[in-house]
Amino acid sequence: MNMFNLSKLLNRIYTARLPELKDLEQVLSLNDPKQLNVLFSFADTVRKEFCGDGILLRGIIEFSSYCSRECFYCGLHKSNHKLKRYRMSEDELFKAVEYLASCRIKTLVLQSGQDDSLDALWFKDIISKIKSKFDMAVTLSLGEKSMDEYGVWRQAGADRYLLKIETFDKELYESVHSGMSLDNRIKCLNYLRALGYQLGSGNIIGLPGQTLKMIAQDIIFFKRGDFDMIGIGPFIPHQDTAFANRQKGEVNLCLKAIALTRIVTKNAHIPATTALGSMDKDYRFDGLKCGANVLMPNFTPQPYRKLYEIYPGKRCVDEPVGRCSFCMDNMAKEIGRFIDYSRGDSLKERKVSANV
Ligand code: SF4
After folding, report:
1. What is the pTM of this model?
2. Which of 92, 208, 225, 330 could potentially form a cystine with 88 if both were Cys, beta carbons 3.0 to 4.6 Å apart?
């Protein structure tokens, strides 16, 4: 494809109410470095137009590594008995949140595995206390729960929820998530949307068995669902999982998916994920230059941070807590951008809460 046709194709995707699957697939199959530059700079222009030059920070605390699920790509899966499990105490959690607040971070992400023993009321209390003491948005990422639990936490003040779809292809989804169903995932997303959470989805690039068409379908799902946040990261094999010997996801494919998601969704918040920064070099820079507008510094205190091993080689596991937020200032400067210390709420203007 010559450059003129590529520009036409990107414009068609940008202006479509819902892009054609085959157009997205065609872009995902690009490999020529000059063509990739055109794609990435198109996405960067869309990012600038809809999100500006500020890079939002989401401070993450991984407060529990218990998990009852058996996702084939994840080191936290239930039968990984090599992993020492933890759930932080209220006191430990508060100290970590206090430190995060002192770094001017205005979004806290509380993440865990699918921790079925988590006491919903204990956790509701934690959310209420955080919301009354600190001026910050609270994002939850705790997996599939009941509508009642989602509702109690929303009432306590939780603002946002991340529940990645990982892949929208039903067969692939159910083959890599033993005992789980895509329908239930979507049901949970609809509960969350109905409760008024700002809603995040996302996928993994390079899952064994995934095709370009499936990634294109994911991007259409993100568009249809009008998600507020979309996290896209590469698959990184973990030695203690069923996918131990599979190939890593390709960085370029991940960057293409980020760029296309930016072009298609326009104003969703898209992080340059920690997984992207945990490959052979730190590709978060590249992510920020092709559509991403968010970074996620890790505030999980030691010794827990090392134990939350979804994939191996995770960035900054040995760094002192909070160090990442300083390093992010430098990252932003290096690419001529700046850290935006606001809450960074959704940029969507949603009048009615439609289903995903
Ligand atoms: S991806 Fe989430 S639910 Fe699946 S095993 Fe890992 S922590 Fe558990």
Report:
1. 0.95
2. 92
